[in-house]
Amino acid sequence: MTLMKMLQNYVQLMNISPSQIKLQFLIRSQQIYIPKYIRNVLRTPKTHLQTPIQNGSYIHLEFDDMALSKSSKSNMWPILLSIINLDQLVICDAPPKAFVLNVKGHNVYFGCNSCIVEDDSIEHRIVYLKFNSPLRTNVSFRNWDNEDYHKGLSPFEELLIDICNVFVIDYMHNVCLGLMKRLLQFWVKGKKDVRLTDQDQEIVSCDLKHLKTFVLSEFCKLPRSLDSIEFWKATEFCSFLLYSGAIVLKNPLSKLQYSHFMLLHSAIKIFITENTCQLYNTLAK
Predict the structure, then answer these.
(1) Is the pTM of this model over 0.70?
(2) Cβ–Cβ contacts within 10 Å for residue 142, how many?
(3) How far apart are the C-alpha atoms of 157 and 139, rounded to whole Å?
(4) Which backbone phi and psi does 100 adopt, to 5 degrees?
(5) Confidence of residue 80 (pLDDT cuts 50, 70, 90)
């Protein structure tokens, strides 16, 4: 293994940010040339690898928000992207999805992107209590069969695509930053009948810290304590749901709560695994 590769692995394993260290101080005494900054060592690619899939290809793009100034909470998402040919799938968060489709947001009446259901408001929250509402289709979308859902024409209506099938459910925001984050918030800061005791929260946090030494380098984030769940990234909630949660929650949660969590864990594991998502799709549902 080359020195450059060793440094890359070290930086990724220790989760070192570019502002923390300049590598030239580590190796200056060895008189070996090495890039001055970590970002040059990591060699972040400027192009994205296309992964062949059935009837097309997959390109993964990730965009993080950027603060406009230190004295403001306003953020922006710089996205420089050109779509040449759209014949596969589009995955985006609920707000931008509503924006590009020119429909109502997810937190208002008739805001569901999957079916024509009128929401109910309970304790200042929009909830979906009906399970047999008609599904939205490409024809119903283009014909505006549910006028309360549309705000205006969408530029995607000019394309020869099946709009309802092209725009799929966003796993990262719905499951990782949605359901999994909400569950942890209930267990840490929720009502007394569902909240973990301070002692149990401390046990879970300690167990998560102990798991750090067993985390492979393929994971971009190491486990953190429950005290910082407000700062967890989507990858951390994903790791907790699919891996560490099944270990650290077994004793602190009640048997019923743990059983429900494991059902979610198993269902999502089936859905995101290539060789099981089709075979056990009905079981996961």
Answers:
(1) no
(2) 13
(3) 11
(4) -75, -30
(5) very low
